[in-house]
Every structure is written in structure tokens, then in C-alpha cells.
Write a structure and sequence with these properties.
Blueprint lengths: L9 E2 L1 H15 L3 E5 L9 H6 L4 E3 L4 H13 L3 E7 H6 L2 H10 L5 E5 L17 H6 L6 E2 L4 H13 L4 E4 L5 E2 L14 E4 L4 E5 L4 H12 L5 E5 L2 E3 L3 H11 L2 E8 L4 H12 L4 E6 L9 H7 L4 H16 L1
Parallel strand pairs: 2-3, 2-4, 4-5, 5-7, 6-7, 10-11, 10-13, 13-14
Antiparallel strand pairs: 1-8, 6-12, 9-11
């Protein structure tokens, strides 16, 4: 009798973030949290209960929130500034540029509920431009972990790093892909699956979809390489070049506009170092409509089946 494999447990990466943040705060009295009336959505309730004098809630005032974070850093604190990514990056972009990146302030910017995680709240709450806005700023690593294990490791790294960081987290549950004990290394991709026919590259909520697409391709005898590229700035240049040279075709997918995000960062390397057929999946330069995150990802051609079909089209271009 065949027994169906139970679905993988889904994890909210915000839970991993706050678990590490609270543990680090218990060890380091310099750690503080700053938010914009988002204690609930940032899951900072436990932090507030344990460290009430180290949580600053500025209300709905994102520019002030980033400025407060910069001021705390200048005073020797280690602030984690938490807000919905659409508002943290959109409303406070000038402050992020001048107060954080230009000043090289030791502030950790945590973009919560990124991508299209707010789904039904529509285009005003979709955060599909944040990679583009953040990765153009000097001094600012841009990171989108793929699961709860990588999230925990990235928070550990961010706390130890002397400088600003933008950490992009979703509220959509994802399965764990990386091994327990994973150590985050900025600018280093994780090889999740090897193959020589095509390379699939993603981060955040899209990485597990790429793995499912690779399973579909494997069923047809097509060996796809899968890279988890959590760091959008800086990208892993060596891994991209190796993917181009070894597999001859690269497909990226992201919960972001196809303009200026992960795919663009990969393409900049490919065109300069090893040109091969490439396709960028994402939101194609439009405002995403209202709908659940799962619906919207499928709507924009990022279901595992659609990714697999796009990969096969790339492979055909390679052979032409």
C-alpha cells in the first residue's frame, strides 16, 4: 500500500526572528527594538513583555522610526527597526539613505510582511519594490532568508555585524530547507540541488517553489541546479558564473518586481561575465492586484509547474 508523504510543516519566519532577538537581548543589554505601531505584526509582544524599557513604539511615523534607530545606534545601542517592508522602505527611504546607509549606522532594518504577503490589502501594502530601493544603497547588505532556519542564522549574523543591514521577512509560512545549525554567510549562495541542464535561483518564499519545480523536472529526466540566493546585495558572483558555465541557462524567481531585484542582480553578473539564456520571473513591472500571496505568485507564473515549463523553454533556447 502506498502511503502519501505528509506535507512539510510550514514556519512563519517572524517567529524565528523574534526567538533569536529575545535570546540575544537577554545576553546583550544594548539590543533594542523600534517599531511603527507594529508590535503585533512584528511579533514583538514577547520582547515588550521581557524588555519594556528597550522597545520604542513611535506610532505610524516611519521616518521618525528610522531616525530614532539611527540615534540609538549613535548612542551605543544596537537597534532592530521593525516595520512592514512596504512602509519601512517606501515612506522612510530618504532616512534609510541618509541616516542609515550614508552614515553607516549600526542599525538592523527588518522589513516584515514583505513581497505580497499582505495579499488582500492590495497594491498599497504589496512590497515588491524593496529589493530595488534597498540594493542600490551603498553599505547596506540586503537579505531575504528562505526559511526559519536561515532567518535565525541571518539574525545572529546581523547582530554580530558592525554596520547596517536590511533583512526582508515574509509572514507566509514556508517549509524548512536548510539544515539545523546552518551558519549564514553574506554573499554566499546555498546549493540545494545540483544539476547540469538549467539553474533555478530564488530566495525568500520562492526557494521552496523552485525545489518543487526541480522535482517536476527530475520526473522528466531533467537535472536542475537549485541555488538559494538569500543575499541580493552582494550576490554570490562565483556561484552565478559557475551556474552559467556549468548549466548554460539561468531562471530566477522572486516575490518582487522583475525590475531591479534579484533577477536584475543576477543578470548584471551574467551579462558581464558569462552570457547565457536567462529569464526573470516576478511581477512584470505592474501593480500586483488584490489576492492571497499564493494566488498572486501563481497568477504571475511562479507556480512550481509554471517554473518548470519556463525552465524547459530556456533549455530549448540553449540548444537552438
Amino acid at each position: 500500500m502506498n502511503v502519501a508523504t505528509p506535507p512539510a510543516k510550514l514556519h512563519d519566519c517572524r517567529d524565528a526572528f523574534v526567538a533569536v532577538l529575545e535570546r540575544l537581548a537577554a545576553e546583550n543589554p544594548r539590543i533594542a527594538a523600534v517599531c511603527n505601531d507594529s508590535v503585533g505584526s512584528s511579533k514583538l509582544g514577547g520582547f515588550k513583555a521581557r524588555f519594556p524599557d528597550r522597545l520604542v513604539n513611535v506610532g505610524i511615523a516611519e521616518q521618525a522610526m528610522v531616525g530614532v534607530g539611527a540615534g540609538l545606534a549613535n548612542g551605543g545601542m544596537l537597534p532592530f527597526v521593525c516595520a512592514a517592508s512596504c512602509f519601512l522602505t517606501g515612506r522612510a527611504l530618504e532616512q534609510v539613505k541618509a541616516d542609515i546607509a550614508y552614515s553607516n549606522a549600526n542599525v538592523k532594518l527588518i522589513g516584515i510582511s514583505s513581497g505580497m504577503a499582505y495579499g488582500e490589502l492590495g497594491p498599497t501594502h504589496h512590497s515588491i519594490e524593496d529589493f530595488a530601493w534597498m540594493r542600490v544603497l551603498p553599505n547596506l547588505p540586503v537579505i531575504a532568508p528562505s526559511d526559519s532556519i536561515e532567518t535565525a542564522a541571518a539574525v545572529e549574523w546581523a547582530a554580530s555585524y558592525d554596520g547596517p543591514v536590511f533583512l526582508r521577512l515574509s509572514r507566509v509560512g514556508v517549509p524548512d530547507l536548510l539544515p539545523v545549525g546552518h551558519v549564514f554567510q553574506p554573499g554566499k549562495a546555498n546549493l540545494l540541488r545540483d544539476g547540469d541542464a538549467v539553474t533555478l535561483i530564488a530566495n525568500g518564499t520562492l526557494t521552496h517553489r523552485m525545489m518543487k519545480a526541480a522535482d517536476l523536472l527530475a520526473a522528466e529526466g531533467i537535472a536542475a541546479r537549485v541555488l538559494n540566493m538569500a543575499t541580493v546585495r552582494p550576490v554570490d558572483i562565483e556561484a552565478v558564473i559557475a551556474a552559467a558555465q556549468d548549466t548554460g541557462a539561468i531562471l530566477t524567481a522572486e516575490e518582487h518586481s522583475t525590475i531591479g531585484g534579484l533577477g536584475s542582480a543576477i543578470a548584471e553578473v551574467v551579462v558581464a561575465e558569462s552570457p547565457v539564456p536567462m529569464k526573470i520571473l516576478g511581477v512584470p513591472g505592474v501593480f500586483a492586484p488584490t489576492g492571497s500571496a499564493e494566488f498572486l505568485l501563481d497568477h504571475f507564473g511562479m507556480s512550481p509547474a509554471a517554473v518548470a515549463e519556463a525552465a524547459k523553454t530556456l533549455i530549448a533556447r540553449k540548444r537552438a
